[in-house]
Amino acid sequence: MAFDTPGHDTAAFGTKGPDQNLEPLTIPRRHVGPKDVAIDITYCGVCHTDIHFGHDDWGMTTYPLVPGHEIVGRVTSVGDEVTAHKIGDLVGVGCLVDSCRACPSCAKGDEQYCQNGATQTYGSPDPHLGGTTHGGYSASIVVDEHFVLRVPESLDTKAVAPLLCAGITTYSPLRHWNVKPGQKVGVIGLGGLGHMGVKFAAAMGAEVTMITRSAGKGEDAKALGAHRVLLSSDADAMAAEAGSFDFLLDTIPVGHDINPYLQLLKTDGAMAIVGAIDAIEPVQGFNLIFGRRTVGGSLIGGLPETQEMLDFCAKHDIVCDIEMIGMQDVNEAWKRVQAADVKYRFVIDMASLKGDA
Predict the structure, then answer these.
(1) Phi/psi of residue 140, nearest 5 degrees
(2) DSSP per-residue letters across 80-103
(3) Each residue of 325-356: pLDDT tens digit?
(4) pLDDT tens-digit readout, 264-291
(5) 66/140 Cα distance (integer angstroms)
(6) What CA–CA distance (Å, rounded) separates 247 from 38?
(7) Which of 160, 175, 226, 243 is paired with 27 by a 20 to 30 Å CA distance?
(8) What are the chain's domains?
(9) Per residue in 140-159, pLDDT tens?
């Protein structure tokens, strides 16, 4: 396979091994092709997936790794055949930068489920330059226009970045399971994903309950839009709510026992798992059969749905709750994410990488 000649080098931050800190790197970006969009990155969110990849927790990382798949910036150049974007536009790039665009999933706009393997923003084989793709902890990026999203100018730009992963990860299942006004929705876990689930479900008109083990998170949840708080550690409270929820969004990021939560669902109720990709404790068939309940999973969203989510956010004035950092603070930010010490997402100001801060 022939690869493109790199178009330019760009400043970045990345890691050269699973036990090494992130440090300054220089990486290549490709020439702007006929359907490409070049973007000057202004903000990039920090996702827990960045850390998993950086530490090779899933045994699939190729180094050096430049993470970052929550990218917001301005268009600096477009190819001759680009129609959707122009120089100066505010745009975003999420977790995907390519897919086969021919399989049934891609044809439906579900590129995240590409049956031939989507190209991730970082850590995937790079079909243009060889090696692996590099993400948004960098000054610039070149992406096919199909995978570049329009960011509404009305939104707080810096707080948009995490919408491109945490936002769409929670919006997509709420839309797929058709959450409606008046339905009773439980969001399990209050973190980077959970806080967005609360905001979206409330904006969709649902009666939202934050389900958490920590009583101290109750007021925060209500400030985000939750109507009620249910302590999963309170057996009596859980029993009183049995059979009352239409939908549960499970954002817990590690393997856990979902059986107590399944008992909260009504007949024909559904639970969507979006946080844990490792093993879930054995599910008791009783909790599914008696109530015709469903457990499913959901992975980010396709490009059409992600654009829909951004437009929904503009309509309802929804962004992520964030803490801004400079690139020099990213190693400490990774430690704080692992300690759950952030409300609720870190966003890197790329001016700090470019020397503009």
Answers:
(1) -155, 165
(2) TT--S--TT-EEEE-SEEE--S-S
(3) 999 999 999 999 999 999 999 999 999 997 76
(4) 999 999 999 999 888 889 999 999 999 9
(5) 12
(6) 40
(7) 160
(8) 6-165+320-354 (3.90.180.10), 166-297 (3.40.50.720)
(9) 999 999 999 999 999 999 99
